[in-house]
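Re: [help] complex structure
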Amino acid sequence: MTDWLGPNEWTALLLSLKVAFWATVFSLPVGFVVAYALARGQFFGRGALNVLVHLPLVMPPVVTGYLLLLGFGRTGPLGAVFEDLFGLIFAFRWTGAALAAAIMGFPLMVRAMRLSIEAVDAGLEEAATTLGASRLRILRTITVPLAWPGILAGAVLGFAKGMGEFGATVTFVSNIPGQTQTLALSIDTLLEIPGGEPLALRLAIVSIAIAAVALILSEMLAQRVTNRRTG
Amino acid sequence: MLQVRILKSFGDFTLDAAFDAPAGITAIFGPSGSGKTSVIRAVAGLLACETANVVLSGTSLDRTAPNKRKIGYVFQDARLFPNMNVLKNLRYGGTHDEDAVIAVLGLSDLLDRFPASLSGGEKQRVSLGRALMSAPEMLLLDEPLSALDGPRKAEVLPYLEALRDQTDIPILYVSHDMSEVARLARHIVVLDQGKVVLAGPLEDILADPAAVPFLGAQDTGSVLTGRVVGHSDDGLTKIETGAGPLWVPGPVGRSGGYLRVRIPAQDVILSRSAPVGMSALNVLSVTITALERGGQAGVIVTLKAGNDRLLARITKRSCDALNLVEGMQVFAILKATAIAPDDVV
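Output below.
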């Protein structure tokens, strides 16, 4: 079974899982805050925030990657800050791939979470207020538990997007085997070397399977939200 | 005592309401769109207003956040938390008087159930219990019965009555149903297009001819409080009121207890001579104190009966035929219904 894929491909698969996992872990809390703000907030710049969040979905991935390179490269303003404060380097490292995956998956994640938060009856939050609950307690006991399937669905979508991200990743952190060569980048490389096509096909099957499972999972979770609303 | 002063503009509609609510139930009455719900949302601090002065027992709540106001709010649609069972819903705001609340509202068999499996009446009882267990200093009830059908209404009403009789905090009760209001409330605030048009003790307002345009001919009428003096073998109850003795259908109340009797203005018939050979049981000798010709065919006649005031709504034609004038002695033939035991008197 293990020789169905070569060692490089296994490395790429595991790297992809690692990249997508950390991208999801770090963007989930940020994504929830943004989704909550968009769903419930009444503040100046809400429209602008909405556009900003959705930009990576519609911009050419190469542009996103290039902007990341400008901002988070070792000489970029943000890259320098992260290196000084946390010793975290993004440029040409797997961490950079994770950052690119997080940014590209962010709109999908926020969208799913926002819809599920909006589906929570604001009247329930109001009722909790009259019972003396603070905002934080309402969030913890009402909003998050009721929006939970949607939050999970958002995480699954973000993860799946992270698994397959190509354009922004290759532009930002290049294609370095063992370091930044994720599943999608590996397929791209295999297609360019003679005789690499069968392996590329196997990797493609793996990535399709992962994407399909993620989609089915997120659909099932979204369905639970709808059921709760109508039931 | 709860003092309320609210000013809020919604586009071309302005809510400008000020009233006092003593302990006990104060009904906020008015047609839909008159701003009733907005009033109690403002009292709860849920509605941002230009002005919303709320003073409870001398303490201003203006700067108190909604979650610190110690209000018990029962919404029209119950708003139980679907992710918690009944017990967790009840305890969400506190566990004040838990055993008593569960017993009084008959909730002990529901505690493990989830809101999705409750009937409308059960949901409203849980919602009421949840509000009470948060140890509120005032209660705001927003048409708690309007989403319920007749039998469910009858199921929840006694609990509301028990609540009224057992607490001494101000209760604002929003409703557009006069039979509910007459049964429960002791004070009434009538809203029309965002303004308070009438406010005061229920008996005074309902028997006020000036209230007719706002309450409508159907809902105008007197509410008298009387003492039960006896039950007859054929199923009637005799009640001694300030206006005289009245027979009401059904064995209601207990001897010596107090009851409220409602006499809708349109159920009062006037006669210049003492009627004979009639099926009506209640005939009172009354004096006409005012005649008010309404816009349509009706005339509202204010009557003094003993120490109480009655209203009768008759047609202009009858008024002219009988040559009714102020100060005249006439007989009022009426149908009375006991509406609620009133143990607080």
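Chain A touches chain B through 18 residues (CB under 8 Å).
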